[in-house]
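Field reference: sequence -> structure
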Amino acid sequence: MNFYQLSKLPFPEVVGNFSAKLALTLNLIEPKCGGVLILGKKGTGKSLLLKCFEKFLKIVNFPYIKIPLGVTYEALTGGIDIEKTIEKGKRIYEKGLLEKAEGSFVLIDDINLFPDEYLSLIFEKSEKFTLIATLNPEEGFISSHFLDRFGMCVTTEELKELEEKFKFLKTCQNFDNFEISYLEAYENFAKYLQMQGILKTKLKFDENTLDEITEIVFRGSVFSHRAEIFLFYASLSYAAFKGDTFVKESHIREVAPFVILHRKKYVEEKPQSKDKEQEKKENQEESTKNFPQSQKNSKNKALKDENFSKGERQELSEFELSFSSAGKEDIFGIGKIFKPKRLIFKKDRVVRNIIGKRTKSKTKLKGGRFLRSVIFSRNKDIDFFGTIKAAAPFQILRGRKDKLIIQKDDFRYKEKERKIGHLIVFLVDASGSMGVQKRMEAVKGAIVSLLMDSYQKRDKISLIIFRKSQAKIVLPPTSSIELAYKKLKELPTGGKTPLSLGFLEAYKLIKKFHLKYPEMRVILICLSDGKANVSLNPEVNPVEEAFKICMEIRKLQYVDTLVIDCEVKNNFLKMELPKELAYRLGGRYFLLEDLKAESLTDIINQVKQFE
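Structure field:
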């Protein structure tokens, strides 16, 4: 009897998704499989699977704990039972959810929406229970360290076949009757699991089984030792599920994808280098085909000059390309999209009422992480434990007989923090110099990658471009990633570089936004090569004018700045102006190449040094 013959028994409410059902079933047979992370887009049945799993546990009386999204720190870790403590006059502790969950299943929906400090608490004790969770990749991921704690990872499927869609619709009609209709099926399946659990203790395996597990993990480019452990228990569970008495190679291979999927390290192969003569010829053809005839003749004459070295010839061609592209207009495509590292910035002392997923801040809202007890607080959220601790030493002096005597001076209040969102202003140089070597493609790819990260962190975004003789807000502050992508895709490149106008427009936007939302912090990300050649005042040097406006932005305490250097660095014309811009802004400076995921350089995470 195989899984597909039994597919109608477990979780009959869910159409399809056999991989997810199998992974959940294997954890029911052997909890040491390490739990399951169910990945999938919205509407593919993640939460429904979790609800069906919870209903099954309830019907067959399996122990489980459900951790809701708005859980408090005290509810997770436990604390003093205030009522019993006051009644008995001594500290009475109450267990938290994590302590109660030992030896049972823990169910979490949308685990990626939990704060990192809560996830640390959960995974710190995850070996004592079996964790079943869901995650929507569109709403953000969790760190690879947390991912590795899950024994298995499966993805939910979209219904594509007409027969499956019809079955789903028919299933929805009888959704309210599932508790009655499938009670017998659930009970039969529970009996089956019990028999397979007994069979699991009688399973046999040899050294070849262990060698096969090690080889599969190694070939999957997985460097975590948890993979071998979880794959071993998953193979045992699957062999018992199929009713076999010996673990076979086929058992290991069929469940290996569940264990390897979220641990696999993808290594890109470098393209083979072309023949040097052929590459030289292609470069020469590429650099000459876009020039007018007069420029081609000028270049050919320069190349024939014996006083020019090979390197100088290449630099001259790049200078001519930059000069010729300043007058024309192009629309470049969007380059490679990657996953950037986390944006982490310096904490401040402002107490806020906003939420997000980027920077930690003190909060007045409920559900924040408890930091400490304080005597004075505008937010009158009483810390009962701190209040009891403050009052305890004076009970004899106050003549306490049976109940705790608390005076006004004993009251302590909670100081809490939670993550907040930002307004991220992208200030993009779209002048002709950004078209050199199709630099704008890489810039657009980097911006889209940062836009995706902003969406996952619940930030607002805005886009300002400067080119020719003007700076324009092409996207006012919004949360729409689709609109930002559309504007960026249609963004033209060409013309002069009015850098000071760009910074002035960003300054005005930030000031206006701060008046409307005084609690929100702002991140200004400037992507430019810094080669300004247009100024507000014709009598002032355009670069110096931009520096003065940067100094004004630096005075805004609620603004963090990043400067991404987009200048081509392989010629003698490099001016290193973005470094000076970053200095005047009081922000951080990074090369555009540092944004790429494969470089393993955490560009924005370096801001941790400010904390």
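Note: The chain has a mean pLDDT of 76.
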